[in-house]
Amino acid sequence: MKKCNVVLMVISSASGVEKGEVESLSKTHSQENQKVECITLENYFILTKIDEKANWLREKGKDVCENILEKAVLDIHELKGQPLNIKGKYPISWGELKDIIKEFKYEKYLGVNIEDGIINSLKLEDKYGVAKYSFSPVLIRSLGKKYAKDDSTLFLFSLAQISEESNGLQPAVVIQVNGTPFYYDYSNEPPVGPNNNKPL
Length: 200
Prior knowledge:
The protein is of the alpha+beta class. The protein contains six helices and six strands, in the order ααααβαβββαββ.
């Protein structure tokens, strides 16, 4: 009889451990299922109109996988070649920029204000295209993540001209960070095409 009780205790004890493990795994699985899975930009790239793109980003931009979004904005916004006729550099620290863009992604845009051919301020706009030149907070934050060493790192916003294959030289605002030789733009309405369908 004693042997039987010992066996029952061992079985009960063993099943208790298994039950605890199952409950723990079930809880973890439940927590993971509650997390919203991130999405790609696949459906975004299908769109051909700027308004459609801006609306898609406003609605879905926050759900795009962060690594996919960062890579896309940096790859696509990086200027191929050097800008021409750079003038009117407007310096602003990474710390100041962070205060302006806050945690926004595509709910608002960073507008560049220009008076008498000089950039005189940056401020948030409610939607893309309110200012003549606009940048998404996602681009600015991605640049900060890649290049900013600390809050004193300088971002230089400059008026320039960039060469577009189909349109020749076009006016633009370009961004240079921390004295790197790389410039980023995409301040004008983007051209549409299979290889040039850029995120805002």
